[in-house]
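B., you asked whether I could sanity-check this one before it goes into the benchmark set. Here's the sequence:
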Amino acid sequence: MKTRNLLILIAFVVSLGFNVYSFNSGAQEVSPCDNTNRYINEVSGGGMEVAKSEIEQLVAGYRQAHIEDPTPYKTTGFILSKRIFDELFKDGDVNALSLNLIVDKDQLNIAVKSIKTTKTGIDKKTGSGLYILQTFCPDDCSAW
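And here's what the prediction gave me:
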């Protein structure tokens, strides 16, 4: 009898592990790798793969164009950690990020929100694994 009760308790604990809910949205959390509902009716717009030399040239050109920018919050790049992506993609229906530039305490930052869109297709041409993300604002940006 004790073994049966122990098995029921273990099954209950395991089932709780598969039914975790986000405190923020009430939506069931899924693995960030679970793409079951993310890419339905996909169209182009998720990004364009480009050669390393092209990316290097574009980044250098942008930095050169802004080298004398007098603003205290100038920047030419951002880093997004894998951990933030894991958090943002816990909702199994979202498939993209809305990024908005903000200035906070004289520092240029990015406000990031996960959204659902059909514009997730990636144009893969070069095999470089380097991408340019396309912009669609203001008509496609999600409201904060």
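One thing to flag: The chain has three helices and five strands. Otherwise nothing jumped out at me.
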